[in-house]
Each structure stands twice: as C-alpha cells, then as structure tokens.
Amino acid sequence: MSWQAYVDDHLLCDIEGQHLSAAAIVGHDGSVWAQSENFPEGTKYMVIQGEPGVVIRGKKGTGGITIKKTGMSLIIGIYDEPMTPGQCNMVVERLGDYLIEQGF
C-alpha cells in the first residue's frame, strides 16, 4: 500500500458522517511522504495538550490538529467543525498505533 493510500483511505475516511479536512504523513526529517491536496502548509495552531514524544493536540478557531509520532514519521490530521477533537484524535492515533506496530 502506498503512503498516499494511508492518507486517502485511513485518515480522510468517514467517521460518523464526518471526516478530516486535511491530513499528511511526514518523515522525522520533514520530507512529505503523502498529503491531502488541500493540506495547509505554514498554518499555526495553539498547543492545548500533549504527551511528550507521543502526541500533540492543537486548536485554531473552530478546528484543530492532532499529530501522532511514530518511529519514523508524524501522522497529521486537521479538522474543522462539525468534526470533534475526539474524532480527529481517534482517526490519527489509530493509524499511528498501527504504523508503530508495523515498525514505522
């Protein structure tokens, strides 16, 4: 499976009628492995919660961001209302946990 398929099929999937507005998978070196077409580069978010070395959650207006660190990558999910922060967390962290299990 290509990295783009992980973004398209796993991060941008439908969750209770909602989906992430943008998503990406990037390497620890900053290289983009895959991203949605509308991924907003350079947008700043206020960090609201984090677990050191594992996950960061941020907020901007009525939306937000979840970033999950794996062994080789960062899984990034961006949401806008009506998607909830919990739904975003679930999507991003589920894929991140799977990739960690697979050695990525």
Automatic annotation (TrEMBL):
PROSITE patterns attached to this UniProt entry: PROFILIN (PS00414)
Q: Does the keyword Transferase apply?
A: no
Q: Name one GO cellular component term.
A: cytoskeleton
InterPro entries named among the record's database cross-references? PFN (IPR048278), PFN_euk (IPR005455), PFN_sf (IPR036140), Profilin_CS (IPR027310)
Asked if the Swiss-Prot or TrEMBL record annotates the protein with the keyword Transmembrane helix, the reply is: no
Where does this protein reside within or beyond the cell? Cytoplasm, Cytoskeleton
> What molecular functions are annotated in GO for this chain?
actin monomer binding; proline-rich region binding
Gene Ontology biological process terms, A to Z: nuclear migration; regulation of actin cytoskeleton organization
Just give the chief location class: cytoplasm
Q: Which UniProt keywords apply?
A: Actin-binding, Cytoplasm, Cytoskeleton, Disulfide bond
Q: What does the UniProt record say this protein does?
A: Binds to actin and affects the structure of the cytoskeleton. At high concentrations, profilin prevents the polymerization of actin, whereas it enhances it at low concentrations.
Family of the protein in this entry: Belongs to the profilin family.
Q: How does it assemble?
A: Occurs in many kinds of cells as a complex with monomeric actin in a 1:1 ratio.
Name by which UniProt lists this protein:
Profilin
Q: What is the lineage of its organism?
A: Eukaryota, Viridiplantae, Streptophyta, Embryophyta, Tracheophyta
